[in-house]
Amino acid sequence: MLEGWQQSELDPHIDLLTGHPFKSAEYCCDEDGVPLLRGDNVVQGRIRWEDAKRWPAGKLDGLVRYELREGDIVIALDRTWVKSGLKAAVITSSDVPSLLVQRVARIRAKPTLDQRYLSVIVQSHRFVEMARTAKTETAVPHISPNDIRDFVIHLPPLPEQRKIAEILRSWDEAIKKLEALRAAKLRRRIWMRSHLFTGRARLPGFSGEWREVALGKMLTEHGLQGTGAEEVFSVSVHKGLVNQIEHLGRSFAAAETGHYNRVLPGDIVYTKSPTGDFPLGIIKQSKISQEVIVSPLYGVFTPATRELGVILDALFGSPLAVRNYLHPLVQKGAKNTIAITNRRFLEGRLRLPMDPAEQAAIAAVVEVSQAELNAIVSEIDLLTR
Could you report the per-residue pLDDT of 133-169, keeping only the tens digit for each? Predict the structure, then answer.
């Protein structure tokens, strides 16, 4: 234990209150009514007031202890942990006035604990794991107020608590700004798909022809197979081509891979397996610097230019673009399998720039945009860790 730190249960350092059992029959729709903070209103890191229930402003006698203050920490006691994270938030100035409803806990720090440091504790991995793995005998997963009170913490002296909380607050603000920047970059990439990749907007200095052509005019199936020296790769929605062992933990390849399709750097790979937002398969360009192999079920094609492959990869990053291209070409089998030959895949048509110089210029914009986005994501990951 560090000097001056102590190990303790959370209980002696907090004031924990659970909400009042407001009767739903007495809810009101009056805009002057006070919003009721229920478990449904608590989401990861914030309060969601859409469709909030309200309590009549004239019936507040005896409810002062359930009034929330700015800085209070609230935790939903039912379904406390969901896939998106812990249902806990700090009350902000825009969340008050409001009243605490049953099955939500309000936590305030006592003098031995800094309120912002208490927020650090609630966001910690150990606390989240406690909420995620809490045992329950009911059909609805939940934690109890005693689960929170009994949580064991390592508590530094108050000045150190404040310093830690201040540092983490600065990092949180940096993460929020970076996430806003990432969202802006993603919006710009969406604009690029609908304008720059379709010829609706042109880069300065280019006026060459755009033509609707069959993809087979731009891609060639080279038909190369593995030599036995290449590593086996799969295709991921977010990461593109990835080493099977590094990505999935083990290889799913057959013992003999001589019939696997070889992928050259810059090749376009089409997987015919439905995945999440891509029910008709995924289309990705290989960004791997060496030759690799993929399942013989994948289609592998070399673009007329590497830059054209960059454009197709960025265009087909959109689930809508993939669906629009593949839907007229694909037939679904009886077991939801995708029935499409490689030749049929190349029969779809896209409007593309014919000038290699314009292809190269558009590809450069795409690659710079992706590099910027990758740098922002890396910085967010580092700050989060």
Answer: 876 656 667 899 999 999 999 999 999 999 999 998 8
State the DSSP H helix or E strand holding residue 212, giving kind and residue range, or none if neither.
Answer: strand 210-214
For CA atoms 311, 316, 321, 323, the dihedral sign is positive
Instruction: Kindly tell me if the per-residue pLDDT of 249 is higher than 60.
Output: no
CB count, 10 Å around CB of 313? 22
Question: According to the model, what pLDDT value does residue 227 have?
Answer: 86
| Residues of the chain above pLDDT 70, percent | 94
Dihedral (CA of 287, 310, 347, 217) sign: negative
The average pLDDT across 348-367 equals 95
Burial (CB < 10 A; 0-12, 13-18, 19+), residue 209, is: exposed
C-alpha dist (Å) from residue 369 to 74, 156, 179, 352: 39, 44, 16, 20
Residue 272, helix vs strand vs coil: coil
**CA distances (Å), origin 126, targets 121, 163, 340, 363, 371:** 8, 21, 48, 45, 34
Closest to 19 (Cα-Cα) out of 44, 46, 40, 37: 37
Task: Flag whether pLDDT at 253 surpasses 70.
Answer: no
Residue 4's pLDDT is what?
87
Alpha-carbon distance values, 11 to 73, 107, 114, 157, 255 (Å): 15, 10, 14, 17, 58
Q: With beta carbons less than 8 A apart as the criterion, state whether 108 and 115 touch.
A: yes
* Of 300, 294, 301, 306, nearest in space to 230 by CA: 294
Cβ-in-10-Å burial (0-12, 13-18, 19+) of 198 comes to: middle
Between 230 and 245, name the one with better pLDDT: 230
For residue 109, the cross-strand partners are 14
Kindly report the average pLDDT of the chain as a whole number.
90
Amino acid symbol at 191: W
Alpha helices in the chain (DSSP H): 115-123, 125-133, 145-149, 158-194, 244-248, 306-315, 319-326, 342-345, 356-384
CA pseudo-torsion sign 321, 322, 325, 327: negative
User: pTM of the predicted model, to two decimals?
Assistant: 0.69
